[in-house]
Structures
1.
Amino acid sequence: MQWGKQSKERYTVLLCANWSGTHKLKPLVIGNSRRPRYFKNIGINKLPVIWKANRTSWMNSTIFTDWIQMINIQMRRENRKILLVLDNAPVHPADLKLSNVTLIFFPPNTTSKIQPLDQGVIRCFKAYYRSRLVKHIIKRCTVALTPDQIIITALDAINWIDQAWADVTGLTIRNTFCKAGFQHRQTVTMINNDMDEINELTFNSSLPSEEDSLKKLDILLSYVKMDELQLTAMEFVKIDEDIPVFNEVDDITVHSLTIEMNDIQQDQDDEIIQEEPPSLTEALEMTRKLHLLACTSQPELHEVVANLESKLIDIYIDSKGNKQTSITDFFRKT
């Protein structure tokens, strides 16, 4: 498997939440194909994320404009007006005419200091996401004979993104806004029970929730080695920090990067489910089918299936004991 800049499969994720942490928008995910594997019979509008695509998997002004106009329509229907604070990036047009959304841009070269989500939410989200990735690798090793048979699909990534974003709590989001310097009497009153924790954020470099998510990822990573490397949670979270997510110079090439609607990859064959009562290993494999069911006709099952899968993997890991294990030790024996 390949990681970071070597990987050919990349996704750009847009996250957006309000100051109080009570409202998190559905993640926007940008891939490199309009209909990747496992998407052939799946309704895009039933996915737990907003799916867009271009050949680089980068954000561009067209995708951003479509997204912000969709948010504006949603706010108009709800009779709400919002202030959206965002990065001063070339793919974020400043001249958009919106009725219910006002855009405010951070000054250049200040994002890392005053962008709230950069103060811990994104790292926390990545830790949750990669915890599910490691669990998936362990799960696939129960039926795989070689590393090449450990398949990670776009549908897998989408489900992990959805669940990782759900795992980020409102308190974590509120704390990051406070850490970035945002203060409001109404917000402080609402979270006065957490003021001791929030006040400490001025002096601490990380959030309690971020530290907790990294500790959990470290525990999972202790069971496996990635390409004979023993990564720490922080190293794994930061592995893609230098990968671009938009064109740094301009957005002129957007038209050449557009994917045609007939860009459809061939779907992979589904595996046959055994009729006899499943073993733990077989139950782990069945969760993939349940994810497909959730995306095709039962979207309300997304959270239930993800939690079931996570619990089954925890049980499987516990059955292996506490001894550190190489990734190849999880492969099915023949």
2.
Amino acid sequence: MKLQGVLLRFLGSFWLVSTLTRAIRTGREQIALSSSNFSAYKTENSNLIFSSFAGLLQQWPNSFAFSGHSIIPGLIPRSTLLYHATNNINGPPTGIEWLAFNSEMSYSILSHRGGELDLYKYAATRPLRVLYVDGQSASLGTPGFMDSQYIIIDASIPPDNPDPGHDPTGETARAVALCKMGEKYGFEGVVRMATSFELLWCDFKNGIELLNMTNATDPYYKHQWDSDVPTNSLERDQSAISDSADPPFFARARWTYAHSGAREFFAPGEVRVILDPMGFISFYDGLESLDAKRRVEGTSEGPRARHRLYGISAHDTKKVQARLIEVLERKEAEDWQIDSHRPDWRALVLTIIQRYSQPLIELRYLLNREDLNATEQAIEVRGLTYDILMPSLDFSHWSSPERDWISEGIHRCLTYYTSTPLLPSDLTHSIRLIIGAIEGTLKRVCTTIYTLFFQTIQMFLPVEPTYS
């Protein structure tokens, strides 16, 4: 009989990522703690939180799980370039408007509206204080995209989609409400994602500088806007698009827009936003109404694409709002600084993905191979599981009839990345949540791999397979 093993359902949590360099903490440590010395934040949703956190600011994870479940503060560094395209004959905006991180995004959104098109290039004059809401949070027209923003604004989610199609009026009202909250609690804009990442910026007179303007109008375009068409890009009705054939350069805009967004498909994603894990908020974090909803729907283990925030209780929305206010008040007290001496939790999570994702894919393939006999398969599994577990394996007592060495190995494996010294100030609610997500996810991975490894070493297999 072939060796059987059940790989984890949450393998999809391990996005294939590029190499990231983990930041090295410097400076004097005082009252250092190890995460193994305190009770990590426990959650039944560790794999969901891990996956959400790992996918922040990446296109594919947030396209797959389009109904966002995370809110996190961040900064856009000084001198970051941002873009705004417009048909507005009155010049650059002065109040609330949108900026794109990629010029192709701004160009594409305005190019299909016809008329003269000006592309403005801005630079941040200082670090910009922002909130990031994950998922397809800048997309309109489908229930779920805006759920987290409704909770931020109104502490409720309407039962029906209030923005059928692309309703610019709804976007205007939402932008005003978000900026009003930002004025109260200190953030100046909101980072969201559609085909690419954008920045809702609350005051174009503050924090950004116009560097230049170029006329990006397709020279083949021969029609102008009617004089009675609104000039504000937030309010212009898209029905005013010219029905003439698309000019050749405008016709390419959507392709170049999609191509530019693909650059952020996987890690490192959108690197021009620096997120603060100390303020990470997850809708998978102890919200009983949503946990109960997923149990009823049979989606507690995922896929995250089926998860929506609609159905959250009033009690839980108030809990999320209270957490958000607590995070924002702390950010204000710290003047929105992100301490570079703190552990880089995003890099750590992506390092874990890089470490485990490919071997787990190989293991799943190996367990399903039909061209190997049982002995050959077991030998191959023994070698691969050893490779995965080697850093946490200790064979000092492996021949003992007791299996303590296995449970001890599993513990070393699941705490391998979280056993480093930490300061008490490092351990906010958000960081405990992230640690719990890491250890909860790795507990399931490590237990599965250790079980397979133990099975193989009990079989008295040959050192090497003999293939026929």
